[in-house]
Amino acid sequence: MVPVNPDGVPATPEDGSILRLDFNPPEEHVGGFEIIDLATLHERRRRGRRRPDLVHRVDFHTLTLITEGSGEHAIDFVTHPCRPGTLLWVRPGQVQSFVRPGTADGTHLLFTSAFPPHSSSADRLVNEWYGPACWQLGVSPTYAVLSTLLGQLRAEYGRPEQDVSAEILQLLLATVLLQIDRLPHPGSGGDPHAGGEVYARFRAELERSYATTRRAADYAHRLGYTVKTLTRACLAATGRPVKHVIDGRVALEARRLLAHTDEPVANIARRLGFPEPTNFGKFFTRHTGVTPGAFRQAYQSRC
């Protein structure tokens, strides 16, 4: 758990890692769930004397539907313009920042992975750490549907505490997630569902093990598949072979740590399973086109 200050705002980590925020609402009516205005979130930050563009991870899910104003939100090196109709889904572990909060306001939903009902297929969605982060819905019928569902969630959550039904909130949230799952997957290069259970199990194991092995054969052995089976699933889901998916996950974490921490490159290399920093440097350059040092310098000079 990240230590928190008396005002309930998590303290900055002292180990040089990226700040990670736990699910810790000031008033938790229902365990693992909260729904507020985006403006309320920013007000909490101001009271906690936090920069509005604070770079951080969360250990829970956030869904934000922008209903008015404009701003910008960065999620893992992609800056998304926010305007009425923008839907954002930030998953546990992703690195985010309100680059320019601006005047954007809307409904901000926070929930832990354990909150949605396990009996619904929404449970699968929240256990996938990957997936689209932003949709521009505009004034589409989908926007109207999601806005109505979020309004129902807010109404239930706003009832007197003793009358709030966790089950109703869970079922409404599951409906929201299933509606989102119907949306196109912008820029994904494939359809995550096309990989089926094989791809879902592989991605879960990849998230657990990317820092300890980059060998496709290791993942195949652990999951009881062949490398060929994993490759077929990855090609169907992403358009890329399994080794590219593995290396892409490692490269993403490397970019996060280089951009958002001052940790020495040699330490980052060891954290990601490279005993020799020179091998990490070659790996990173091959996947990004620049050396770790050059990437860090270029990124941090823009901040």
Topology as H/E string? EEHEEEEEEEHEHHHHHHHHH
Estimate percent helicity: 40-55%
Mean pLDDT across every amino acid position = 88
Largest sheet: spatial strand order: 1-3-8-5-6
Distance between the termini: 28 Å
> Can you summarize the main beta sheet?
5 strands, mixed
Low-pLDDT stretches are 1-12
Number of strands: 10
Rg measurement, Å: 20 Å
**Structural class of the helices, strands and pairings?**
alpha+beta
H/I helix tally: 11
Strand share of the residues? 15-25%
Shape call? globular
Notes on the structure:
The strands form two sheets. This protein has a five-stranded mixed beta sheet, with no helix packed on it. Strands 2-9-4-7-10 form a five-stranded antiparallel beta sheet. The two termini are about 30 Å apart. The model is unreliable at about 1-10 (pLDDT under 50). The longest helix is centred in the last third of the chain and has 19 residues, at about 240-260. Helices cover about 45% and strands about 15% of the residues. The protein is globular, with a radius of gyration of 20 Å. The chain has about 300 residues and is an alpha+beta fold.
What's the arrangement of secondary structure elements?
Layout: E1 20-21, E2 33-37, H1 38-47, E3 56-58, E4 61-68, E5 71-75, E6 78-82, E7 86-90, E8 95-100, E9 105-111, H2 122-126, E10 134-136, H3 141-157, H4 166-181, H5 196-209, H6 216-223, H7 227-238, H8 242-260, H9 265-271, H10 277-288, H11 292-302
Parallel strand pairs: 1-3
Antiparallel strand pairs: 2-9, 3-8, 4-7, 4-9, 5-6, 5-8, 7-10
